[in-house]
Amino acid sequence: MPQLDISTYLSQAFWLLLSFILLWILLSVFITPKIADIIEQRKRKIDDYLQKAEIMNNKAKETNDRYNTTLNAAKNAAENNFNEGKEHLDNYLHNFENKFIKELSSQLADNEFQLAKQKKEILQQAEDLATDLAFDIVQKLGFTHISRQDIINVSQQRGEK
């Protein structure tokens, strides 16, 4: 095997060392700086994105705070309007109820008065009809000496008892 031949060690070591140095110079002069530059650009870009994200996050927080403040103010205003409306409606309903009760009480009193008046008239008519009927019966039975006034007096005496 030629690589194990001792006479070629020196040339192999020379070329190995030369190749290693050239590769190291090539990497350190051309490739590593470009990679470092790309890494630095990416780092700056990421930092820039992070700064922009922080700024946007702060703006979003401010907007959210303004939104919450406005929302709470709107909720309070709506609650106040609701309470005022409820109070107004309660007062209106209370006044309407009182007015309605007064009207119903007045109508009820009028109706009771009318019913009492009609009851009295009907009872009077019934009493008159009963008196007429009793007088007709007494006349048909032949008791001509009994007058209508006598029947009314007897009826009144029984009503007093």
Order of helices and strands: HH
Q: Proportion of β residues?
A: under 5%
Rg, Cα atoms, Å: 61 Å
* Tally of alpha and pi helices: 2
| Coarse structural class | mainly alpha
Shape summary: rod-shaped
Number of strands: 0
User: Sheet with the most strands?
Assistant: none
Helix content: over 70%
Distance between the termini: 160 Å
User: What is the number of domains?
Assistant: 1
Low-confidence stretches: none
Q: Give the integer mean of the pLDDT values.
A: 90
Task: Give a brief outline of the structure.
The chain has 161 residues and is mostly helical. The chain has one domain (11-160).
Which labels suit this protein?
single chain, 161 residues, mainly alpha, 2 helices, 0% strand, rod-shaped
Please provide a written account of the structure.
The structure is a single chain. This protein is mostly helical and 161 residues long. The chain has one domain (11-160). Helices cover 90% and strands 0% of the residues. The protein has 2 helices and no strands. It has helices at 9-140, 148-160. The mean pLDDT is 90.
